[in-house]
Amino acid sequence: MKLTLIKTIALGSLLTCSAAAMAGGSDYKLMVIETATAPQPVEQSFNSCALNVKSKNYEQAEAICTKAIALLKESRESKLKVRELTSYALSNRGVSRMMSKNDAAGLSDLYEASKMADSVMVSHNLTRAKEYLSL
């Protein structure tokens, strides 16, 4: 069932889709990757991270996002693709950390994600986090 739910979420877009998560009245965007966009272990960890954030399992989400980031470091995909996917995984982990009130670590992840790749969704998450923290 969990795998089916992950696949359903993943089929929502070519590379990413957004799912709102509320924190202090600010919405965050979670990224998932579509089937065959990345190797299966990366795809599964990446999408499971987003699913756990959405399900409010923040501690588990953080661990799974960290695993996805590690898998991406070992990936043989193009450097551009790895940077982009790593940026999205960092953003998802940052959202998870923000939602679990680990604000410093969450903000750090979001800043790092925004430096890695130029993404509207990552920028959105960083902006929302800074607004939430009144920075």
Question: How would you portray this structure in words?
Answer:
The chain has 135 residues and is mainly alpha-helical. The chain is 65% helix and 6% strand. It has helices at 2-10, 40-54, 58-73, 79-99, 103-116, 120-132, and strands at residues 20-23, 26-29. The chain has a two-stranded antiparallel ribbon. It starts with a helix and ends with a helix. The model is unreliable at 4-25 (pLDDT under 50).
Main β-sheet: number of strands, strand sense, barrel status? 2 strands, antiparallel
Compute the number of helices: 6
Low-confidence stretches: 4-25
Order of helices and strands: HEEHHHHH
User: Strand order across the biggest sheet?
Assistant: 1-2
What structural category do the secondary elements indicate?
Answer: mainly alpha
